[in-house]
Design goal:
heterodimer; A: alpha/beta; eight-stranded mixed sheet; globular; B: Ubiquitin-like (UB roll); five-stranded mixed sheet; two-stranded antiparallel ribbon; disordered N terminus
């Protein structure tokens, strides 16, 4: 047994080291390719535009290849040749090359947008591939923007692609946005969403903003028309719709909440569509008539609802908006200098450290106290009886769980828990029923220890605290504690084959 | 329709929907058909402020009230939609409920 395990461990370590080396090589290759592209700039297709086969001026505004490539959309009356020329001279920035950015970039590149900029500081992970459709398995470890541009070049080499291998920061945002005509918000957190909206408004760029989680998505075209701050005819900005950020604890990421690929893909595709509509919109005519324009709207997609889509009329600009009103307090200077502090504004979720060290066991310590029951022995052969409560939600519990563990989702615990200030006194539920989620043996007189485990070791602490508030530990007679680091630590310390999802 | 002297006013049936994850706080049901009184004890007509209190007291089984209400208003990050329009176009919490109204609460999403 020991020999095989050692072989496995050695192989795993070798694979990890080789993968790290491969990722490094991929990044080096990209830098080298960039230098090569820069050196051959003079021979790029863009430089040859409007030159005929023999180098003479062509009478046609598009390349032969472009008529063929874009013909199917050019014969749609809303696009036409004027729309195609607008697309070719348009510069579009996508902030985020993930679940929204990939499909959005794919359609914009396909449609012949002249310049596509992508900004993202992340590298490709295998858990991205189910939805981030430009990335390939071989590119795990590579910068997302490089992986995306590699795919996009194969799709349409006529487009100029600009990689920004960094997260968007307030000091850099204005100078980057300045180079583009329209911005797509394909990011995943409130702080960056406010930064993008503020910068877009102050630089007069229309903004197509989308988001998605689990089975739902939302889409808005903001600051359109992009009038200067104080002009009431401009479209509302993100702050007009959401003047205050949500409490940080209420913000759920795709990593924690989950996301279905086609849901976020739908939203990214719609972002590309809205961007194309903005770019190809008819010009304001000579009489300065405003072209017909839809009022500001929020589009909501819900995969398991009927109808799938609904459209909500949004308010216009807020008269006291901090950015787009006449009484604005946010300016490019306050953004760049950091006096508009996005992290402070949005707060950060407080990672709970609710329990003392004596209330927490590492997976290793748990295993020492409760050695594994050798396969084939009777269940009663546990060295010491105890209860494991797994507070992940049902779907996660269904993916992998410990034998004999009890699943009580944290949402169920929190939903049924009266706040300590009302109703029940701490530690006293005599006279009132214990909450329905409690298995009967936990309210018995037993002093067998209870261990709570979750995915990462945060929810487990909240659950332990709540159970102690209910008095289940009978003033310390019964041990209730959590497994520090959750199943992630479990995988590292106890069982390397534990599925990591 | 109503007799102002009798004080009895027909109750108001409305539909309330929760989306963007808020349905988790309301028994995992997106759509709820409810009926509110046509007139309140103080003689006023029920408005959105009344509806918020009504929902917290009667429909919300989940104890995490702070995920829905903060400082007697909907918490930041939740949009209230009255018949498919942002409530700010309709008078916000002072909007008086009408029979057949569709009130939607949407939590903003941030993933991408």
């Amino acid at each position: 047994m020991g020999k095989d395990e050692n072989t496995c461990a050695t192989l795993r370590a070798e694979i990890a080291a080789t993968e790290a080396q491969l990722a490094r090589l991929k990044r080096d290759l990209v830098s080298a390719e960039d230098r090569a592209v820069a050196n051959s700039e003079s021979t790029s297709p863009a430089a040859n535009r409007n030159k005929g086969q023999n180098g003479s001026e062509s009478p046609w505004p598009l390349l032969q290849e472009e008529y063929g490539r874009y013909g199917r959309q050019m014969i749609v009356s809303q696009v036409g040749l004027p729309g195609q020329l607008k697309l070719r001279s348009a510069k579009v920035l996508l902030v985020g090359a993930g679940g929204l950015g990939c499909p959005a970039a794919q359609y914009l590149a396909g449609a012949g947008v002249g310049t596509l900029g992508l900004i993202d500081g992340d590298t490709v992970e295998i858990s991205n591939l189910h939805r981030q459709v430009l990335h390939r398995s071989r590119n795990v470890g590579k910068y997302k923007v490089d992986s995306a541009i590699e795919s996009l070049r194969e799709l349409n080499p006529l487009v100029t692609y600009i990689p920004h291998r960094t997260h968007l920061t307030p000091d850099a945002a204005p100078s980057i946005f300045n180079e583009y005509d329209i911005i797509l918000d394909c990011t995943d957190n409130p702080a960056t969403r406010y930064l993008i909206s503020d910068t877009a408004v102050l630089l007069g760029k229309p903004l197509v903003s989308a988001s998605a989680l689990r089975t739902e998505g939302q889409l808005m075209v903001l600051n359109y028309p992009p009038r200067p701050p104080g002009d009431k005819d401009g479209g509302p900005c993100y702050r007009c719709v959401f003047p205050k950020p949500p409490p940080a604890d209420s913000v759920v990421s795709c990593a924690d909440g989950g996301i279905m690929g086609p849901v976020v893909g739908t939203m990214g595709v719609l972002q590309a569509l809205e961007a194309i509509k903005v770019i190809t919109a008819p010009d304001v005519d000579a009489l300065n008539q405003t072209p017909h324009q839809d009022p500001p709207a929020l589009h909501i997609f819900s995969a398991y609802s009927n109808p799938l889509f609904r459209t909500i009329r949004l308010r216009s600009r807020r008269i006291n908006c901090a950015v787009c009103s006449a009484s604005a307090t946010v300016s490019l200077d306050t953004i760049k200098s950091g006096s508009t502090d996005y992290i402070f504004f949005c707060g950060s979720a407080s990672l709970p450290s609710l329990l003392g060290p004596e209330e927490r066991l590492s997976p290793q310590e748990y295993r020492e106290r409760h050695p594994q029951v050798v396969h084939g022995e009777l269940e009663q052969a546990h060295s010491r009886p105890h209860t494991i409560i797994d507070v992940r939600d049902q779907a996660q519990f269904g993916i992998c769980n410990l034998t004999d563990s009890v699943n009580i989702p944290i949402s169920k615990i929190l939903a049924s828990m009266p706040t300590p200030t009302n109703e029940r006194l701490q530690g006293d539920y005599s006279g009132s029923q214990p909450p329905s989620w409690l298995p009967p043996d936990l309210t018995s007189d037993s002093n067998d220890p209870i261990y709570v485990v979750c995915r990462l070791g945060n929810d487990s602490q909240i659950a332990v605290k709540k159970m102690k508030d209910l008095g289940l530990d009978r003033n310390g007679q019964r041990f209730i504690g959590d497994i520090r680091g959750g199943f992630r630590a479990w995988r590292e310390q106890i069982d390397p084959e534990w599925p990591e999802y | 329709m109503t007799d102002p002297t009798s004080g009895s006013v027909a109750p108001i049936p409305i539909t309330v929907e929760f989306t963007g994850g808020l349905e988790i706080l309301f028994s995992n049901e997106r759509k709820h058909k409810i009926t509110v009184p046509g007139r309140l004890d103080d003689g006023s007509q029920p408005n959105i402020s009344y509806l918020l209190r009504y929902l917290v007291d009667n429909l919300m089984k989940d104890q995490r009230k702070e995920l829905f209400i903060m400082e007697d208003n909907v918490r930041p990050g939740i949009l209230v939609l009255i018949n498919d329009a942002d409530w700010e176009l309709e008078g916000e919490e002072a909007y008086e409920l009408q029979p057949g109204d569709n009130i939607v609460f949407v939590s903003t999403l941030h993933g991408g």
